[in-house]
């Protein structure tokens, strides 16, 4: 009979992206094209981590010669924050500190105060004039200036926000009334604290679209840094001092030429996105979605509604 157990197909012809993500990417690409045309320095910032057991998962070995045995219980983890451009890592911008926990997502080891201190002390003093700072939307990058209260906020928080924004309100108003005032007067544009710090110094911040880490050149550089560490971590369990030393060596060995190549690759990806988005937009416009007016379920619902209406008229 030649039957096989396999997944059934459906009639989906096109996999569509979320419209808000597409819009964000269009806006980002358009802004980046303008910045590149103007010749502005583009600086990519990001955070990553390195463990003392950072090793290659595979290597040449046989029954007598085993590969590097990584210590899965290693307690040494470093958080790394840096910035760079097509000319290389930004001089003086490196921040390295020991993580408070050895496991879990490294984003949990970062917070707004840490990133604020790094921006003020290491990033801003070393940026070229009129730079464009490219960053992702990690929680510590998106701390909002003058956050708008939610409907779950306390009454005091709501009243304080209204007063600070010079919106008349009465202490005797209920929370529902206060939130209605807040909702009708909420700022149209979200302002982030980090953006304000950077823009006050004459620079500009551009936010990567969600799920587009491939457009951040420093992500490729982190891969190179970790590859160097893996190549030289022959014990599988470095001490904290040795890990710091090896990390510094790896960062030093990433040349400006490699940075330039990664930035060029990102620019190529941007152009590909720009071109493909235009083609997809034209393709979607040509698609025609037909609605089957003879659908049984729809007709049954219509008949039921009409019969109910007739019964109702008869009762009248």
UniProtKB/TrEMBL annotation:
Pfam families reported for this sequence: DDE_3 (PF13358)
InterPro entries (alphabetical): RNaseH_sf, Tc1-like_DDE_dom
UniProt biased composition (Acidic residues): 293-309
Domain of life: Eukaryota
Domain Tc1-like transposase DDE: 105-233
Region (Disordered): 293-316
A single GO molecular function term of this UniProt record: nucleic acid binding
Protein name per the record: Tc1-like transposase DDE domain-containing protein
Species lineage: Eukaryota, Metazoa, Ecdysozoa, Arthropoda, Chelicerata
